[in-house]
From TrEMBL:
<dbReference type="GO" id="GO:0005524">
    <property type="term" value="F:ATP binding"/>
</dbReference>
<protein>
    <recommendedName>
        <fullName>Sensor histidine kinase RcsC</fullName>
        <ecNumber>2.7.13.3</ecNumber>
    </recommendedName>
</protein>
<dbReference type="InterPro" id="IPR003661">
    <property type="entry name" value="HisK_dim/P_dom"/>
</dbReference>
<dbReference type="InterPro" id="IPR005467">
    <property type="entry name" value="His_kinase_dom"/>
</dbReference>
<comment type="function">
    <text>Component of the Rcs signaling system, which controls transcription of numerous genes. RcsC functions as a membrane-associated protein kinase that phosphorylates RcsD in response to environmental signals. The phosphoryl group is then transferred to the response regulator RcsB.</text>
</comment>
<comment type="subunit">
    <text>Interacts with RcsD.</text>
</comment>
<dbReference type="InterPro" id="IPR036097">
    <property type="entry name" value="HisK_dim/P_sf"/>
</dbReference>
<feature type="modified residue" description="4-aspartylphosphate">
    <location>
        <position position="875"/>
    </location>
</feature>
<dbReference type="InterPro" id="IPR030856">
    <property type="entry name" value="RcsC"/>
</dbReference>
<keyword id="KW-0472">Membrane</keyword>
<keyword id="KW-1133">Transmembrane helix</keyword>
<dbReference type="InterPro" id="IPR004358">
    <property type="entry name" value="Sig_transdc_His_kin-like_C"/>
</dbReference>
<dbReference type="InterPro" id="IPR011006">
    <property type="entry name" value="CheY-like_superfamily"/>
</dbReference>
<feature type="domain" description="Response regulatory">
    <location>
        <begin position="826"/>
        <end position="940"/>
    </location>
</feature>
<keyword id="KW-0597">Phosphoprotein</keyword>
<dbReference type="GO" id="GO:0000155">
    <property type="term" value="F:phosphorelay sensor kinase activity"/>
</dbReference>
<feature type="transmembrane region" description="Helical">
    <location>
        <begin position="314"/>
        <end position="334"/>
    </location>
</feature>
Amino acid sequence: MKYLASFRTTLKASRYMFRALALVLWLLIAFSSVFYIVNALHQRESEIRQEFNLSSDQAQRFIQRTSDVMKELKYIAENRLSAENGVLSPRGRETQADVPAFEPLFADSDCSAMSNTWRGSLESLAWFMRYWRDNFSAAYDLNRVFLIGSDNLCMANFGLRDMPVERDTALKALHERINKYRNAPQDDSGSNLYWISEGPRPGVGYFYALTPVYLANRLQALLGVEQTIRMENFFLPGTLPMGVTILDENGHTLISLTGPESKIKGDPRWMQERSWFGYTEGFRELVLKKNLPPSSLSIVYSVPVDKVLERIRMLILNAILLNVLAGAALFTLARMYERRIFIPAESDALRLEEHEQFNRKIVASAPVGICILRTADGVNILSNELAHTYLNMLTHEDRQRLTQIICGQQVNFVDVLTSNNTNLQISFVHSRYRNENVAICVLVDVSSRVKMEESLQEMAQAAEQASQSKSMFLATVSHELRTPLYGIIGNLDLLQTKELPKGVDRLVTAMNNSSSLLLKIISDILDFSKIESEQLKIEPREFSPREVMNHITANYLPLVVRKQLGLYCFIEPDVPVALNGDPMRLQQVISNLLSNAIKFTDTGCIVLHVRTDGDYLSIRVRDTGVGIPAKEVVRLFDPFFQVGTGVQRNFQGTGLGLAICEKLISMMDGDISVDSEPGMGSQFTVRIPLYGAQYPQKKGVEGLSGKRCWLAVRNASLCQFLETSLQRSGIVVTTYEGQEPTPEDVLITDEVVNKKWQGRAVVTFCRRHIGIPLEKAPGEWVHSVAAPHELPALLARIYLIEMESDDPANALPSTDKAVSDNDDMMILVVDDHPINRRLLADQLGSLGYQCKTANDGVDALNVLSKNHIDIVLSDVNMPNMDGYRLTQRIRQLGLTLPVIGVTANALAEEKQRCLESGMDSCLSKPVTLDVIKQTLTVYAERVRKSRES
């Protein structure tokens, strides 16, 4: 049934896929047609562009030829004019010299002065112009040459041809160009001027060129030429109705020759371009624009789009007709194929399903032996050979039990062990056969499966024993390694609190660093082993992520400052004040990432950025260190993997830190990712879910609203974070660029301020500052870049505002350090190891506590009976009476004093067992002074409060 239904579904899907195939084929034909048309259009555009370029070359040669003529005439004029008085005797005085015609250009033009002063030079030029007219004028197609004096502004006209002169129009145009030349900047006054005036017929005009003539570095005159320009010479004869237009430097039309279908209009897209080819707005014309150097003119060729498409119009019609015919043919073929093949096949599949219902039911129930038993008495009516063999293995009792089960119809299978130790599983279904109630039975030999299950059970027991052995090994190794380490690290801690001789303090520090590194390596190995054996458990509880980040930065800030780096910690306002998770494991992960960033960074800074990302808390650690090659990033979280090989590794470690981080974050339902580039640094991003998140109230600090703060921060990330944080508190934030402040303004900067600030205070963010904000002078505060989120609290202190915060992590700690006197506390130390017992007593003594010691639980009960004890610090594993029984005995005696366990076993089960026995807390060896101080401060305060009550 299932296979037939699937077959019918496949046929129906095939029918639709065949339709889709026909549609795809038609689309392929359509796309091919469009591609062919577009290709033909581009080829046509290329041909037109080539024709445009050839035509523009003729215009360019015309302009260049005129420029060359101007250079020759300028050279002749400069040689013919004298620098002293402008007089040079012409050759051939025997011929009568031609005198040019003089035309005043301005009202104050003095043509008589020019005629008298330059008479000899002008006669010489006139003689040369006559020679030029007779020999070269026809070749260069010049109409006239004119000379304009720079002082008298009078024009001497050397006519080369008898051309009609439109005097007013020519003088007006020349007058405008002279004014333009005189008013041009000094740098442009040495260049040539080119312009065109319209002629008597369309497409015909006059081309003018004007160049300065210098004598002794002084502008003596302006030399110009007039030449007839015919636009019909600027394009090749062809079949296209091409239009040509010459524009000035401002895009204004000077002269044009366009066909009746070409009406070019100015388009800002290409009018300002030096060279442009494309369609005008609305795709009405195809245009080519080119400059005509050395002039500032440009020439534009255009042709109507209709003429461009004229040659491919029939191609478009043929493509449309082809696609219509192809679509009709494909549709007809698909319809015919469905009616003759797919629809009959679906009908056959339906009939086959109906005919095979009974047979499929039997086959589905019998992979091996099949038999039919009568329900009334269990007689075998029909069976195959294998089923007959299995039935002969059954005893008489087995047959009776099988008959009762079949008649009862309560279960559908039974397991039977035959006389030759063969395990049979008999399954059956009830049906009708030959007008009788029968059971269709299936007999399967499951002896192999039974043996496999027994083997799996034995393997499970062996695995459980191995897990117990591994747990015992971890507990033993943890205890045996941490116990001597406690004696080393604890005594080194005590040594560092003493006055040491010169040079010894360096040795003690080196020993302490080495022992701390050894402890970290051991902890990593034990943690990894516990994770692999599933012994490590996440202990979720409510915690503040802000406090965890502040604690981490406070621990690593001295190391960062010592390496002359910068540690920036940005905690966004949307980070929850509390959420459910394991703060110790989260601190372990972030501390490992931050430690690696410090280790692999020599210059620059490290950024710790905490924000929310949807339903996750995102913690990003970014550094400017050496970076990681891409081929090694994929193996970065493998156990024991380290970047580099062999002796090339410059950094210590086991290669387990990141592997542990990945597994811990995975156990927290989070993820960790890395993005790195060699030489640029690395960025690790940790995300954990926001379980039970409690968000801060969106309110600023009352009293800060309306206050003005000036920002002069060079670090862009720090500046952006401060601006957002201050604006959230209602503070007006302005970038400082030397403005005068009001007396209540505060300047926030990350560089040294040289001049005296006239406002209320200056807050300087310093990378080397460690601890809480410090007022080094009245109104001059130093703030750490590791806690910029505490700035609103500092501003509240500066403005003398009482601040209430729902997040104690953002509250600014007091600068007054309360020194507590602990000599009122009597603490009992219970440990069977004499070195550890003495060390713990010395640590308590350095913290100011009174102390008594005991060797084991029995000795501790004796001390308790004779002395008043406030707190008990007890080892867990001791002879005679261990810490668990000691705690239970103390509770049975009715004593409620705090009992704190100290164990060298770092397993979570050990801590849980301590709490279940009645202990208040449990510490793992080695125990440092800071851990003892933090723990005892809490319980000592509790004891003092109980005394008062």
